[in-house]
Write a structure and sequence with these properties.
It is a single chain. The chain has helices at residues 36-45, 100-106; strands at 14-18, 21-25, 32-34, 55-64, 71-77, 84-87, 94-96. By secondary structure, the chain is of the alpha+beta class. It has one domain (14-106). A seven-stranded antiparallel sheet has the order 1-2-3-7-6-5-4. Strand 2 (21-25) and strand 3 (32-34) form a beta hairpin. The longest helix has 10 residues, at 36-45. The radius of gyration is 13 Å and the shape is globular. The model has no long low-confidence stretch (mean pLDDT 90). The chain binds zinc ion (2 copies).
């Protein structure tokens, strides 16, 4: 599988593993991309039931989905509205700024 490009920096992201799940992270801005299934696997690995990534109040952005090239939309996490996520409505993946994914999962 070819490496994804960071939607913000357009540099190739590195793959690493967290909690047994493959995650793409940008070395430049520290943001991470999670596919829909990767997000669900991460939430499941914490002992919870798998949770869908629910993003609301979507606004258009200039960024493109690294997976399917659809335009990303910035929105808020359904339950935790202080989290901003760049979300792809086509494939269900999301881009999290540095540290946000960890903070979100930690709650
Ligand atoms: Zn980046
Ligand atoms: Zn997409």
């Amino acid at each position: 599988m070819s490496k994804l490009k960071c939607p913000k920096c357009e540099v190739k992201m590195d793959v690493f593993y967290q909690l047994g799940v493959e995650i793409d992270q940008c070395n430049s801005c520290g943001g991470v991309w999670l596919d829909r299934d990767e997000w669900k696997a991460l939430t499941r690995s914490r002992g919870d039931n798998a949770v869908e990534l629910n993003v609301v109040n979507l606004q258009p952005t200039d960024f493109s989905c690294p997976r399917c090239q659809n335009s990303l939309q910035e929105g808020e996490h359904l339950d935790k509205s202080d989290f901003k996520i760049d979300y792809c409505t086509r494939c269900g993946g999301g881009f999290f700024d540095r540290g946000e994914m960890v903070r979100l999962l930690a709650r």
